[in-house]
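fyi for ur records
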Amino acid sequence: MNDLRDPFNPKTGEFRENIRVASQDDSELRESLKRFGWYKQFPAIADENGVILVGHRRMKIAKELGIEPVIQAFTFGKGDAADAERLKIALASNIGGAPMTKEDRKHMAEYLYGSREWTMERIAEALNTTHKTISKDLSEFVPSVQNKPKGKGRPKGSTARRKNTTVDAERAALAILDGSKTYPEAEQESGLSNTVLRAAVAREEGRREPTVTPDMLSMTAQQKFDTAIRQAKRKLEIEIETKCREDLQRWLNEVTLPQYAKELGVLERSIRERKGIMDRITYRKILACLHPDRVIDPALKKRYEEAFRLFTELEKRVLDEKESPTQFRKMPRTYEELMAMKAKVQAERRAKRAGKSNVGVRG
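which gave:
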């Protein structure tokens, strides 16, 4: 589009090069002009400024062959409406010969939108298509500064992508809405104007869902809203509970129980290696001497009872592991073993309470 000539310019206007993207095969037209010349019944059409609207290829070939062209001029006037009529005639001639391709249409739409600053509605009307089609053709088109006429603003009703819809503007708008940047900070960082940023913020706000509060709803809708909230809370509670349980299980299996088993193993090894200071026979002899049943004096009997109890408690200290073996209780090593042990203890407690209740009933 940088070297595109203005088809409406009285001096350089050439519609043909602006409507078609790729050149056509002119061999048949060239052969026809050689054999029959230029039929007066099929003149080229120009406007009052001499701009060729129809017959550009014939004009070019006729000039190369030295054939005198036949031209009929029409007066259209000035302004966009007049230019639209010029364009329709040029398009009708081209479509009559070979249908306009998608590339041709996009090529012409970009020119009319970027350089001529036509609105999409006017372009769609002139190209005999829909506004949606033109909008799609221009979705990725950004008019260059050099194609923009001086002193003119952007065309009204345009929805094509502009600088204020670039990624930079969207990113800056998000930062402003999220409170991480002020407008001046966003302007300095992005290099965009305050007007552009405010437009981007407005678009982003439009994309976001509005806040809905219960007082905005009818009574039935409020009840449904409250029910939905309760269900969502319950669902969230279940999810949190499940996550906590999974985290607890993983923590017990990977951290707590392995460390506990390690320390328990050290303790058990220490107990198995326990050495005593006497054998069991000696221990039993001393214990027998301290038995309170051997004493008749009540005051002395009480002292013997205490001595007997203390010496009994010292059994594990004075005898080795072989003479007085320790009964090790099986301890859980995993979360599953811990839960199984918990269930077993609870079942035993329930059975014990049930047994007591039965005894009371019989009594």
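The two ends are 108 Å apart (CA to CA). thats all i got for now
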